Amino acid sequence: MRVEFHHDPRGEALTRVERVDGVVLLMPSFTRKWRVPHDMAHAVTERELGIGTGVFGCVAAGAVFDNMTVADGKPKRTAKAHSDQVLKSAGRSLNVAEILAGALHHFAEHREPFSAGVVRSAWGSMAETPFPWRDGEVAAAFTTLRELADEWSSTDSPLTFSWPEKLRADRPGSSRVPLGVR
Fold first, then answer.
1. 3-class secondary-structure state, position 114
2. How many CB atoms lie within 10 A of CB 110?
3. Which of 2, 33, 56, 182 is most exposed, with minimal Cβ within 10 Å?
4. Residue 175 has pLDDT above 70, yes or no
5. pLDDT tier at 70 (50, 70, 90 boundaries)?
6. Distance between CA 33 and CA 176 in Å, rounded?
């Protein structure tokens, strides 16, 4: 899946997702108050930490969120039912992805020194299972986000982001998030 973050002339960001099934989706990201698009924080956090049941893993599996529009391609007749099933199956994992992406986004947005302890605490607010990543893995995800955020801020060109096919919500074992949070 190909993900592109576009600068919107109104100061917002627009995320363009080209799925492998040929459907192209647009997702507005209301970021006028943020330097770093929140959807970018999701994409980086989820990809770097191997979370297949977050926002972008669900989209790769066929989910369409309410704020998304189809820009190109033809969704299958059963697309709505499939999307609902993917989102229901992801369950609390979407909330956990939101918490983790939010924590990394905070550090990147405010250019604060990174703290894996804060990210572990955020995890603990939603999950009952032990934190599944080493501090170095989380720090590496943050470094990637910070670098892409700097690149995004320095140009008006779209930022292209590849999403690995293996990180899909509908694939068994597609997420390192333990089953205890679903």
1. coil
2. 10
3. 33
4. no
5. very high
6. 32
Count of all residues that appear for the chain in the document: 182
Enter the pTM of the model. Answer: 0.89
Residue 177 lies in a domain: no
Let me know if residue 157 belongs to a domain: yes
Q: What strand order describes the sheet that includes 69-72?
A: 69-72, 24-29, 13-18, 2-7, 159-162
Which structural domain, as residue segments, surrounds residue 155? 2-170
Q: Which two tokens stand for residue 55?
A: 């926002």
180: left (phi over 0), alpha (psi -120 to 50) or beta: alpha
Instruction: Please indicate, yes or no, if residue 178 is contained in any of the structural domains.
Output: no
Contact status, residue 160 vs residue 77, Cβ threshold 8 Å: no
Measured in degrees and rounded to the nearest 5, phi and psi for residue 78 equal -95, 15
Q: For residues 159 and 87, give the distance between their C-alpha atoms in angstroms, rounded to a whole number.
A: 27
Total domains in the fold of the chain:
1
Query: Is residue 175 in some structural domain?
Result: no
Residue-wise pLDDT tens digits, 104-151 = 999 998 988 999 999 999 988 887 889 999 999 999 999 999 999 999
- 25 membership: H or E segment, kind and range: strand 24-29
